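Private note to self, pasted from the team thread so I don't lose it. Backbone tokens:
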């Protein structure tokens, strides 16, 4: 009897969601107007086809990740642009839970990959976390698991983060100082040298200058040439 009540509650919530004004219901309404098929039937068919593809189709991992990212990302941007802060808290809670789930999946994916219908169950889990209802998965997991663990270890994590940030800053300063001192040292070792060709040109006179000076200077007569000739 309890299971029947759960299915009845889910059915009522789905009917309420289909009668609300949102992007999904607007699209389903347009399809209903063109085809004449009720929105509920279209929604059930779309969910069934997506579930079958997640079980047997190629690229189920990509489709599952798109479902868990595209819709929340779109509404997160709308929440940022809206003046209301309640939706900001809602989608921040989802992304915290999504990050914790992705971290756990990274270490366990090698085992969960072989689990039958893994991506179908993962897609249902992500849909439950983003569902527009008060008992969605992100609120429950955050309040029951993430928040208690965070509050229990908040002081330790803050001290660890502050210590790591201080060590990172000191290491960056030391590295910058060493690099600058090395550059200055290498710059002092480099001695500028004059061009060799220019130095030789300045120190040695040209041969053409010697020829011109030799041709211009007069030649003095010797003593024998100055004596008169006596026959």
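Design output:
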């Amino acid at each position: 009897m309890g299971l029947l009540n759960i299915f009845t509650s889910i059915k009522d919530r789905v009917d309420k969601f289909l009668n609300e004004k949102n992007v999904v219901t607007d699209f389903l309404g347009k399809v209903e107007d063109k085809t004449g098929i009720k929105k509920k039937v279209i929604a059930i068919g779309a969910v069934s086809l997506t579930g079958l593809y997640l079980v047997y189709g190629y690229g189920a991992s990509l489709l599952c990740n798109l479902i868990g990212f595209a819709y929340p990302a779109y509404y997160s941007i709308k929440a940022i642009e809206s003046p209301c802060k309640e939706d900001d808290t809602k989608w921040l809670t989802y992304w915290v839970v999504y990050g914790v789930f992705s971290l756990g999946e990274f270490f366990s994916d090698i085992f969960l990959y072989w689990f039958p219908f893994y991506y179908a169950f993962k897609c249902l889990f992500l849909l439950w976390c983003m569902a527009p209802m008060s008992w969605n998965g992100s609120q429950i997991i955050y309040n029951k698991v993430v928040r208690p663990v965070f509050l229990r270890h908040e002081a330790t994590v803050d001290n660890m983060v502050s210590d790591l940030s201080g060590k990172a800053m000191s290491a960056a300063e030391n590295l910058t100082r060493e690099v600058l001192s090395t550059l200055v040292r290498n710059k002092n070792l480099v001695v500028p040298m004059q061009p060799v060709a220019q130095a030789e040109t300045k120190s040695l006179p040209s041969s053409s200058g010697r020829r011109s000076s030799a041709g211009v200077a007069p030649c003095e007569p010797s003593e024998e040439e100055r004596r008169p000739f006596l026959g």
